Here is the input.
Amino acid sequence: MFFEFNEQQKEFQKRVREIYEREVSPLVEEYERKEAFPIQLYPILGAEHLLCQRCPKEYGGPGSDKMTECITVEELNRICVGIGASVMVHGGLATDPILHFGSEELKLRYLSPAVRGEKIGAFALTEPNAGSDASGIQTTAVKHGNTYRLNGTKTFITNGTICDFVSVAAYTDPSKRGTGINLFVVERGDPGFSVIKKLKKLGNHSADTAELAFDDCDVPKERMLGEQEGGGLAQLEGTLKSGRLTYGARSTGVGQAAFEATLFYVKGTLRQGQLLARSQAIRFVLAEMAMSLEAMRYMTYRGAWLFDQGLATMKDASVVKLFCSETVQGIVQKAMAIQKNAGLRVDNPVQRFLRDGRLSKIPEGTSEIQHLVIASGLGL
Amino acid sequence: MDFELSDEQKDIQKAAREFAQGEFDPDLALELDQAGRFPESIWKKTAKLGFIGIHYPEEFGGQGCGLFENLLVIEAFCRIDSGIGSALSTVDLGSEVILKFGSNEQKNQFLTPLTKGEKQLGIAFGESEDERDLTAISTIAEAQGDEYSLQGEKSFVLNASLVNAFLTLCKEPKEEWITLIVERERHGFEVQPVEKMGLRMVSFGNLLFKNARVSLGNRVGREGAGMTHAHYCHQVIGLRSAAQALGTAQGALDRAMQHARQREQFGKRLSQFQAIRHKLADMAVGVEVARWLTYKSATEYDQGKIDPGFLSVTQLEVKRRLVAIVDEALQIFGGYGYMAEQAIEHYFRDAWAIGVELGTEEEQKDVIAEIML
Here is the structure.
């Protein structure tokens, strides 16, 4: 057992922190206010090799391991969770299935430009009536000659209005509940694909979230992932496992930001004539925040290590996601609760950390779903 | 001990609930919240029906009820919408100080217009991020002829851009604390609005007094009583905020139950899953705890025997329950809960703003421990 980042990882962490502080930090307040994603970031992050990090070198990616990716995710989410959401989906659910199940042609067409930040990806599984229960989706893909005709509505889609392509889950055989699903790559300009509306949210304001419509949207059959019909949800297993670990790093990043803001605040705030940092109760609060962060970090990086060894089960990934997304709530809530009136100001980042951090318990499997996965992983 | 509302109280509760159900349009609530706008026309109707100042004596436009009835109205309003309900309960902050310590003339002049929905009253006590930290106050009021002249700055004043008169805590040059009613139309007075994340219909403002003029007759009570006034006012606001919290928690539970009954996943309604049922049961426990703590504190207030320790217990526990209930309600809504189209999204933000008025956990524990030990 070895619980330290090696020199290369430490160096990498330092480098990405510098990049994010230089390139991302100055954009945060403006784009949070606009409730829009700063798309100019994509080519910049592409040039720094910080997109689709686990994409192999042959398609232009850096070919990093999960551990390295988690370092990046933690650092980016420490700066901005909303921007982190876009980059996460782009490098994860939008492109990972293409890498693993797409044809050579699809990889060259979507993956390589995505790595460079020239094309933005999205992923569309959730529907108004199917969230946790993904097999309940109603979108269909019916084959007509050389094309599949897609019909359905997708919601809560990150990068929905800004994406160049979107990986869409649809039933090729609705009679096979859960197994008759395939993933299709739909391009922004495809006829029949449209954005119904952009959604306003509690947090992650700088992430673009939308409801999408597929209305007789014809997609060439070559854009289906995989050789044959069916098995689309199973193709997502590996990506979901990876994404749940990413959520550990995402939660750790925003928790770290809230912790740093609180540390700064208590050292500079007098209350009833006393510096907050001198109050025993407040010192205990900071101690607990620091303890929670350490635990989250170890869980996340251990999960990433297991993943890199090929040892991580879905249960392992769910344990990381559940623990980190629940634990970070205590940190962001306490950061907010300490601040009184000042915490409510829209220009105070702690209220953003609270709103942004709150998301963790919902996507890529709610906390309730993680409990179910873990319980069945226990053989129950 | 009697844990039953009287028939009159039940009538008031029912009237308030029906009014709110009829007037607090969910789309309007979302729009006002996003725009950060006060519900002007609803406020006028609220006053017309006698809900504002229900606890003032009839001679000053009220209904002669106790604060308990006022809290029932606040609770009913916030249950239907946390944002509109809270905005309507913020139009007469500080009025209880005038009721208890003011002259009849001041009550006529400042309370009666509140009940008619013509004017709003606010409080301007604190000068730091902590409105209850009165150690750091430096606003000076100097008597000059038949007026006071004010110099200073107040921060995080609620509803500052709409309020017509502010109950303002200041010091005289000889260091006596006084409370003055500062009217907006007097010159030498400036408001800087501050946008906030929750209860967005009620903005914050910083008040700047630059030689602001206040007539001598606007001093409440005697010289030196300012601290007593501020302390008393914070107790009342603690009670009112507890009622806002209670209504907001109940409203969040109502919505979560409705969603759980309708939403189907895995071929079942959410309300059929044990994990969800137990969450809802826990939330119901929280609402009961919040309700009875709040009602007991309000009853004691109306009996003229506020127990500061119990008030702190109330504020501390009601806040804990509120935050937990609203968070769990949002979770039951899943992805929808995170979207602004669902009211639960602003309930979450509003809960944190209401929580600030209930004080921090640490300060309430300080009070409780001080009394116990």
In short: Chain B has 13 helices and ten strands. Chain B has a mean pLDDT of 95.
